[in-house]
Write a structure and sequence with these properties.
- Chain A: Keywords: Amino-acid transport, Cell membrane, Membrane, Transmembrane, Transmembrane helix, Transport.
- Chain A: InterPro entries: ABC_transp_permease, BCAA_transport_permease.
- The structure holds two protein chains of two kinds.
- Chain A is mostly helical.
- Chain A is built from eleven helices and three strands.
- By secondary structure, chain B is mainly α.
- A two-stranded antiparallel sheet of chain B has the order 2-3.
- Chain B has a domain of about 220 residues.
- Chain B starts with 5 loop residues before the first strand and ends with a helix.
- The chains are: A mainly alpha, B mainly alpha.
- The interface between A and B is large, with 53 and 58 residues.
Chain lengths: ~290, ~350
């Protein structure tokens, strides 16, 4: 039984990483209706920017805030310059655009900062949290930040005018335009916010997985899986999905014989798919009804 | 957010409708292309012939995805898994059971059809990004499954299997590469014609009806479940054939040749060639074979970025892929004829 609780705790700790990323995924999905394959790379690039700032002697929290502002601006710029011209293009063409963006960011980061693994500092320290060997203060801090982020987003979407406008633009663009919402800029704003959230995720994840251009590959996959499991329309679902995927993954690795590190991912994905077969819109997703 | 059900107005489907006749090339153009494919290998080096063989093979794999996505509107990131099953079926049969390479191809088609059909069953419940995730899971699982210990005797584990390249039959005076090229060409033409006919048939119309509107299709009496799984089966079978040919051409199969990267390449090939336009599959295959090499030669360190920029250029200029160029060309010819 102790093994079980320990594994669940460890799962929650890794789940926090996935939850962070899933939150960013859901944000952008709300705004643009696609899964952004380049999201992880964008987060990685932001993390590198903050690392570079710290190398130049900027203190952690200052670097954090600067990176956040930079990511927000960069997200908007990417939407305006690269993806606005593709608004009328077919969906699959947009997906190809994300893959292109992925290749560009990954390769440039590799050229600027090379592919060696770098240490990344944590503001929370890495002592055991409340005496538990499995969760460090950093991981506890990460869970705390994720929950704060979720609350912040909830209040933003529910109680601010601009949050309401973004929701309107995402769910019924035509009607939103009729009441005077600039839907095109709402999409850009969505990109900006998603990139900023992604950069927070990146900066929290980097102390755990270490900083290098390919650090986000695995994390993004789990982030997608978590977002899909929780339901792509629900930020709350994304966070719950993230923790569930973390726990799933750990338990599968411990209890199913013959599952090494390599088979963890396929098994986690298979579990998620079996959940989706029962609940096709995810655990907390809105069921979308199509008009014929 | 609220859990209220939401109604989405029509006109926002994932894959746009392509008129049936626009899915193929005219007879004249086809004959010119065919002649070029027959004659060119006589004048080029073996390496170029090998690249042309790979182009046909990837073209087949992209074509298979095109039938699934462009035809029936189902999205797949798992094509690399079907490709791997085809490749391994051929390799194992050739190396362990000493079966003739040409005979292994129909066998792997049947195996892959079964595999794809069965996979299509649970996938029926899913669509859009959810289906993408499911197929993606298949693609990430496949290399790991091929490495499993109890299969190692057959698959060779991480090491993979070496496949012997066949000689030209009947004492034909041509190199192994040239023979393999013509062999691939024959298979490709046969499959291309079958695919064109499939999409023109009753089943093809059913695929397209499902793509355009599933609910409407089912109320018109189309058996949605049957045709969706059938599309998966057919697509997997063709991808499997491509995989078999690929294994014979490369003379080697290993789990790590069939990762998600392959599936993403095939997807890019489909977009560049034009979703739902079968001849475009081969244009897309050319893109995924040659453009990465080109990017590498422009800049070694930044090859990924160069590739990304080139891809962006293509999708800006022709968001509908090579099909758009073909349509523009057709209109120009039409104008020319009028004058």
């Amino acid at each position: 039984m102790e093994l079980f609780t320990n594994q669940v705790l460890a799962g929650i700790a890794t789940g926090a990483i996935y939850a962070c990323m899933a939150l960013a995924v859901v944000m952008i999905y709300q705004a643009i209706d696609h899964l952004n394959f380049a999201q992880g790379e964008m987060a990685m690039f932001s993390t590198f920017i903050s690392w570079q700032l710290m190398q130049w002697g900027v203190p952690y929290w200052a670097a954090f805030v600067i990176t956040l502002a930079f990511s927000f601006a960069a997200g908007i710029a990417i939407e305006r310059i690269l993806f606005k011209p593709l608004t009328k293009a077919p969906v699959l063409t947009n997906v190809a655009g994300f893959i292109a963006l992925f290749a560009i960011i990954n390769s440039s980061a590799g050229l600027i900062w090379d592919f060696t693994i770098k240490q990344y500092p944590t503001p929370f320290g890495s002592a055991p949290f409340l005496g538990s060997q499995l969760i460090s203060t950093h991981q506890a801090g990460m869970i705390g930040v994720t929950i704060l982020l979720l609350l912040g987003l909830y209040f933003f979407f529910q109680y601010t005018r601009i949050g309401l406008a973004m929701r309107a633009a995402a769910s019924v663009p035509e009607s939103a335009r009729l009441v005077g919402i600039n839907t095109s800029w709402m999409i850009a704003l969505g990109w900006g916010m998603a990139t900023a959230i992604g950069s927070i995720a990146g900066m929290l994840i980097a102390p755990v997985v270490f900083l290098e251009p390919n650090m986000m590959g695995g994390v993004l996959i789990y982030g997608f899986a978590a977002a899909v499991l929780g339901g792509l329309t629900s930020p709350f679902g994304a966070v719950v999905g993230g923790f569930l995927v973390g726990v799933f993954e750990n338990l599968a690795g411990t209890y199913i014989p013959g599952v090494g590190n390599e088979l963890k991912l396929p098994i986690a994905l298979a579990l998620i798919i079996s959940v989706l077969v029962v609940k096709p819109a995810g655990l907390f997703g809105r069921h979308i009804v199509k008009r014929v | 957010m609220s859990a209220a059900e939401e109604v989405v107005a029509e006109g926002h489907q994932a894959v746009e409708a392509v008129p049936k006749r626009a899915m193929t090339l005219g007879t004249g153009t086809s004959l010119v292309v065919l002649a070029a494919l027959l004659i060119v290998p006589m004048f080029v080096k073996n390496f170029v012939i090998f690249q042309m063989t790979m182009l046909l093979i990837y073209g087949l794999a992209v074509l298979a995805l095109n039938i699934l996505t462009g035809g029936s509107g189902q999205f797949s990131l798992g094509q690399s898994a079907f490709y791997a099953v085809g490749a391994y079926t051929s390799a194992v049969l050739m190396e362990h059971a000493n079966i003739n390479y040409a005979l292994t191809i129909p066998i792997s088609a049947v195996v892959c059809f079964g595999f794809g059909y069965l996979f299509g069953k649970p996938a029926l419940r899913l669509s859009g990004v959810y289906l993408a995730l499911a197929t993606f899971a298949l693609a990430t699982a496949m290399p790991q499954l091929l490495k499993l210990n109890f299969l190692e005797h057959w698959t060779g584990g991480v090491q993979g299997l070496v496949v012997t390249k066949p000689d030209a039959p009947f004492g034909l005076p041509m190199s192994q590469d040239t023979w393999l090229y013509y062999f691939t060409l024959i298979v490709t033409i046969a499959i291309y014609m079958l695919s064109v006919n499939l999409l023109r048939s009753r089943s093809g119309r059913a695929f397209m009806a499902i793509r355009d509107n599933e609910i409407a299709a089912s109320s018109m009496g189309v058996n949605v479940a049957l045709y969706k799984t059938l599309a998966f089966g057919v697509s997997a079978a063709i991808t499997g054939i491509a995989g078999s040919l690929g294994a014979i051409a490369v003379q080697f199969v290993a789990p790590d040749s069939y990762t998600i990267t392959l599936a993403i390449s095939l997807f890019l090939g489909m977009v560049v060639g034009g979703v739902g336009w079968l001849p475009g599959s081969f244009v897309g295959a050319a893109f995924i074979i040659f453009v990465p090499n080109m990017a590498e030669s422009i800049s070694k360190g930044l090859s990924g970025a160069v590739f990304g920029v080139l891809l962006f250029l293509v999708i800006y200029l022709v968001p509908h892929g090579a099909r758009q160029i073909a349509i523009i060309g057709q209109q120009l010819v039409g104008k020319f004829k009028k004058n």
